[in-house]
């Protein structure tokens, strides 16, 4: 998929997230498995009601959360409530997956406790591919920042992607990067693909 189509797809997804946040709703299980498509270049966010219901139930009765581990924000893994900023972290992972066309941490061993520690305390993130447009890489890093206060809002992300799409100069840079991006080892030689889109109970790291 060329960058022009990747940006089109991302603009649909983050516009949906912007509408969700505008209504003061927080998605409690946002990951690429909950992104549904009418066609290859159109998408919308699903599984919203189920995610909220499960999260509220767990919040009262357990010492953990329900979600797809690799898309859950750091603060949520440590026991803080999901927030709009948490959703932006998850969207950043979706951005990375679309940029590569592959699973996040797709080769990491299915070892939840060690992976949570790496993410929370060693700032483990996927490698950004060589040749990725600089503006895209910088937005990714802001979405992944360990401090949720530094995450952009859904409105800002949507406006940024629209600016890229509508600028001939910026879009040309994206299109040139199609030839420069190199698929390389993502640095996680050790999660099996079956775990990537699976939501399940995750114990808080501080328990």
From TrEMBL:
Protein keywords: ATP-binding, Kinase, Nucleotide-binding, Transferase
Domain of life assignment: Eukaryota
Residues annotated as domain Protein kinase: 1-161
A molecular-function term among this protein's GO annotations: ATP binding
Signal peptide: none
InterPro entries noted in UniProt: Kinase-like_dom_sf, Prot_kinase_dom, Ser-Thr/Tyr_kinase_cat_dom, Ser/Thr_Kinases-Pseudokinases
Presence of keyword Hydrolase: no
Alphabetized Pfam families for the sequence: PK_Tyr_Ser-Thr
Record-given protein name: Kinase-like domain-containing protein
């Amino acid at each position: 998929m060329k960058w022009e189509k990747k940006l089109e797809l991302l603009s649909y997804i983050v516009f949906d997230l912007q509408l969700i946040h505008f209504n003061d709703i927080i998605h409690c299980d946002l990951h690429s498995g909950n992104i549904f498509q009418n066609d290859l270049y159109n998408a919308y966010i699903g599984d919203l009601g189920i995610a909220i219901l499960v999260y509220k139930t767990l919040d009262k009765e357990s010492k953990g959360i329900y979600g797809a581990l690799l898309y859950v924000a750091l603060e949520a893994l440590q026991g803080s409530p999901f927030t709009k900023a948490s959703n932006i972290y998850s969207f950043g992972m979706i951005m990375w997956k679309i940029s590569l066309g592959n699973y996040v941490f797709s080769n990491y061993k299915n070892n939840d406790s060690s992976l949570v520690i790496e993410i929370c305390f060693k700032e483990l993130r996927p490698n950004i591919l060589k040749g990725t447009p600089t503006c895209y890489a910088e937005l990714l890093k802001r979405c992944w920042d360990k401090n949720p206060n530094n995450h952009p809002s859904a409105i800002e992300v949507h406006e940024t992607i629209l600016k890229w799409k509508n600028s001939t100069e910026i879009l040309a840079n994206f299109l040139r990067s199609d030839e420069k991006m190199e698929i390389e080892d993502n640095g996680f030689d050790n999660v099996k693909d079956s775990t990537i889109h699976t939501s399940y109970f995750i114990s808080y790291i501080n328990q």
